[in-house]
């Protein structure tokens, strides 16, 4: 009996000692005035009858058909970028001759441009000869033409004659290119600047403004599966040793390309749109049944906050759809680069445009435009029965002048749906003046709605203080938030 009492006394002492140890308080994450999306779970503290829902781009018109003299049915690796008021498109011009079972002509880098990212033209540049004529849209020929991938260099230290830079595959690795105008290009070095990897893909790099460095993403193979490597550079010529990105718990799958960007509306977030290749599946349709190459493809969405650790949404972001030509081989390659375009609906609300290859190998190869709501990759969604999401503990910035700090929301409901919100302190207690009872009941569809509580939207008194935001949703979607202070 005494032994039992001693044992229970010991247990009680241990419990009391453990309970006396202070539990580390959650450190608030400072988000300043930046926009946060829900493409990962970084902002989410809890979900109750709500979920993260992946959305899908909607097909629109054919943006361009690759039927020019130096183009063809295997024109590929498309890059679209914005340069001032002009949009530029670069792509591989190539063709496969089915009868001869070989390439129909050498590979070139071809060029198109647009004023609105919807209607595209191919200028006659007169730079390189093809079939005895320079009347074509070729901007580069030779080394790197297979997968030439340019970008506008926004590095403040960039030289004017190197405003445009690019990577392209050559013997031994990736070579660096530069241009003052995006049309006339030259090699920056006679040797490859990145040599570790497998470069038969759209390998890319750009200036990462948020982190102040160049970042590269290129193909690698791991256990015979196509994967992605990354490295960084201060000057675009000397790169850190490439390492494989970590896609957490997603199963190994062939990621044929990566199409990585720093999302313009939230540049601290990397978004990638790899073409997922499934080589083990027989193509559902083939233009030449006698030579039925296996494999089907779709597009997926990935996101990262550091470029090394990624979340991959394993559900397809871009499905092949009902167009039979998209159901085989290397179709559904999402072009590198997204643009903002006006919606055709009344009011011309801005939306995102993405572009994807179809009719590959069949010919002529073409690029279709797809549209998506701004920030509309993933939402916090709740059904009609209602649901809740509470954010992690955060702090936000005050304004520099007299401008109030306001909570800006990108959200949408049904006619019978709604969204309400309240602010909580560190202990989870609703903050007076910003409680759910005082919140407006929002219903509608807005890209930049200002939250109010009894008509008040000014959150300046809470700037710098740790808070959570609790959302109560009914048949509604929340796409992004930010604490606007300008």
TrEMBL record:
This is Glycosyl hydrolase family 32 N-terminal domain-containing protein. The keyword Signal applies. Keywords: Signal. Residues 1-24 form the signal peptide. It comes from Gimesia algae.
